[in-house]
Design brief:
Elements: E1 14-20, H1 28-39, E2 43-47, E3 62-66, E4 70-74, E5 79-83, E6 92-98, H2 104-118, E7 122-131, E8 141-145, H3 148-154, E9 157-158, H4 167-177, E10 181-190, H5 199-213, H6 222-238, H7 241-257, H8 264-283
Parallel strand pairs: 1-6, 1-7, 7-10, 8-9
Antiparallel strand pairs: 2-5, 3-4, 5-6, 8-10
C-alpha cells in the first residue's frame, strides 16, 4: 500500500482522473490531466507499484535518455499529483494512469485508500468514446452520477448504461460503493477522425468539468488548437467526396435532433462560467 508522509493538509480536495487506453478515444480525457498538470504546476504525490497491475509484455516500459548519457526506464503505472489552483479555495488531486491489465478490484481498492488518506470526498472520472458526432459541431459531453442529489444539483444524468465497461466505469462504481461522490464525464469523439490528439474534445471536457467542480479551468491555447484541429479535418474531408458527404449527413442528423434555440440551462451555465472567471481575474 502507498505510504503518504509529510503531506500538507488539503482543503476540500476533489479528485480528477483519466486513464489511457480503451476509455480514452483521441487521448481526449488523458489530455485533460496533462493540460492541468502543466497549467497548475502540479507536484507528484504518489504512484502505484506497476508490478501489481500491468503485464509488461502488453503495456511495455520505455527507455529514456537523461542528460544525453543516462538511460532511464519509465514503467507504465498510475500516478497521483497535487494541484493548488490560484485563487481557488480547494485543492485538486490529479490521477493519470493506464488501464491496468489485471487485478482491477485491488487496483480500485488501493486508489480508494489513497483518496481516504487525502480526504477526497468527490471524484470526477473522465472518458472519451468514439461516436458518430460530426467534428464541425460542439462536442457532446455526457455527465452521469449514481446519486440523485448530484444529478439534480449538477444537471447530470443517472447512470443507466449496460454493457462492457473499462476501468473508468469499474472505478466509478467502486467509489460509489465506498461512499464517495462519483461523477463521470464522457466526450464523444468522431469515429472517422479517431487519431490523437483531439484538442476540441479535451476543451469540451474542461468546460463541462468547470460546471461540475465549480473551479475555473485554465484553457491556455486549447481554443486555438481546437479551431486549428477542426480546420485540418475540414481540409482532409474536402479531399474525399464520400467523407464530405458523410460528414454532411451527420451534420443534418445532429442539427435535426437539436433545439433551434439555446436552452435556459445552457445560457445559465455559460453565465456562471463567466462570473467564475471574472472573480478569479479580480482576485489575481
Amino acid at each position: 500500500m502507498i505510504e503518504l508522509e509529510g503531506l500538507p493538509e488539503l482543503v476540500d480536495p476533489v479528485l480528477i482522473a483519466a486513464f489511457e487506453g480503451w476509455n480514452d478515444a483521441g487521448e481526449a480525457s488523458s489530455g485533460v490531466i496533462t493540460h492541468l498538470e502543466g497549467a497548475w504546476k502540479a507536484e507528484p504525490l504518489a504512484e502505484l507499484d506497476p508490478e501489481d497491475y500491468y503485464d509488461f509484455q502488453v503495456t511495455r516500459p520505455t527507455v529514456e535518455m537523461g542528460d544525453g548519457l543516462t538511460r532511464n526506464i519509465v514503467w507504465p503505472t498510475t500516478r497521483f499529483s497535487l494541484a493548488r489552483p490560484p485563487g481557488v479555495e480547494r485543492d485538486v488531486v490529479l490521477l493519470r494512469g493506464i488501464e491496468p491489465n489485471m487485478r482491477w478490484k485491488s487496483f480500485c481498492a488501493e486508489i480508494i485508500e489513497v483518496c481516504r488518506e487525502l480526504g477526497v470526498e468527490t471524484t470526477v472520472m473522465l472518458g472519451a468514446l468514439l461516436n458518430d458526432s460530426p467534428h464541425t459541431r460542439p462536442v457532446p459531453v455526457l455527465g452521469t452520477a449514481s446519486d440523485p442529489d448530484l444529478v439534480r444539483s449538477l444537471n447530470l444524468e443517472l447512470s443507466r448504461y449496460e454493457g462492457p465497461t473499462g476501468i473508468v466505469g469499474v472505478l466509478q462504481h467502486a467509489f460509489v460503493v465506498a461512499g464517495l461522490n462519483a461523477i463521470s464525464l464522457w466526450a464523444s469523439v468522431p469515429h472517422y477522425v479517431a487519431q490523437p490528439p483531439n484538442p476540441k474534445a479535451t476543451l469540451a471536457l474542461l468546460r463541462r468539468m468547470e460546471d461540475v467542480v465549480r473551479i475555473p479551468m485554465p484553457l491556455g491555447d486549447l481554443d486555438e488548437e481546437a479551431r486549428a484541429w477542426e480546420h485540418g479535418v475540414d481540409e482532409l474531408a474536402a479531399q474525399d467526396s464520400e467523407v464530405a458527404e458523410y460528414v454532411k449527413e451527420l451534420e443534418e442528423r445532429k442539427d435535426a435532433a437539436e433545439l433551434p434555440e439555446a436552452s435556459g440551462d445552457a445560457i445559465a451555465a455559460e453565465f456562471e462560467r463567466y462570473l467564475r472567471r471574472r472573480d478569479q481575474d479580480t482576485d489575481s
